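Table S2 (continued). Query chain:
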Amino acid sequence: MAAHDESTQNVTVVAAVIRDAEGRVLLTRRPDESHMGGLWEFPGGKVDDDEGPAEALVRELHEELGVAADVEHPITFAVHEERGLRILLLFFAARILNGQPTGAEGQAVAWVPVAELASFPTPPADAELIRRLTT
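Corresponding output:
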């Protein structure tokens, strides 16, 4: 692990594992111009200072995908570190209460069979979760 210094930004990010009736998992593709652009990820986003993780995830799913969601339970966490940045990712099981997920910011959205998750290029921090889901 990288040593902590005053220039390291700490960010908490929440992400949802959402399954459809067929057991497929929802992934979204990061915009090309964003950090880790072009990679597929579990939908979610940053936790604001004034909100809890579940509240942030409900907000992010509404903003990014236009759906109302219910956060069910935590699954796992991961830490991603690079120069000047440390991201704590909290993964939750969630379900869509209403709405069809569409990329409000132009991002691609895909329902992926669990057996195919490993074939999608994802951020390194998602690797352990994908391994857990596919074994």
